[in-house]
Write a structure and sequence with these properties.
Elements: H1 6-31, E1 51-55, E2 60-68, E3 76-85, E4 91-101, E5 105-108, E6 110-111, E7 117-120, E8 123-126, E9 135-143, E10 155-166, H2 171-175
Length: 177
Amino acid sequence: MRKLKKSTYGFIFAIIVLVIALGITLYLGLSGWFYSNVTKLESDMQLGQTVNLSLTGNETEAVSFTVSGAYLPGHNLQQYVNVTNESDKPLYVRAKAFIFSYSLGDTKVELGISEHWTENGEYYYFDEPVEVSNKIAVSSYVKLLEDEFYDSQKSYVLTIVVEGLDASLNRAEIWGY
């Protein structure tokens, strides 16, 4: 039997270490150790926190929340949303809210608005232009519709969309209201 050279011992050691590392990696990969199932959805936005949006002209701002399907139809979910006009001219403002799910698509949700808002179709329109640097309340709560039922085992995405339009433009021609 032939004697091995000293330089060959380093290669054999490296091969053994790599085979062991490959075996451990395969075992951990097949056992699911590298994968995690996260059931708690983390978001910067928590339902119930006050949200302040800013409009700087003809634009749209939206905020989305993850909502559990365990809420009953007709339930009020406390959600304060405010909008500030940060443009250099007055703006018309409109808003809408909906819940999205893969199976149901978009489902309208009722906003808890003040008497200065008018509902027309799927949108709520603020009655007068919002002056420069003024802040208005869009909603104090979101109400699930009475005839919509959700799966308590699933989560849904609640989105509130706020749109601004320069008050010098014809909103009836552009928005249809």
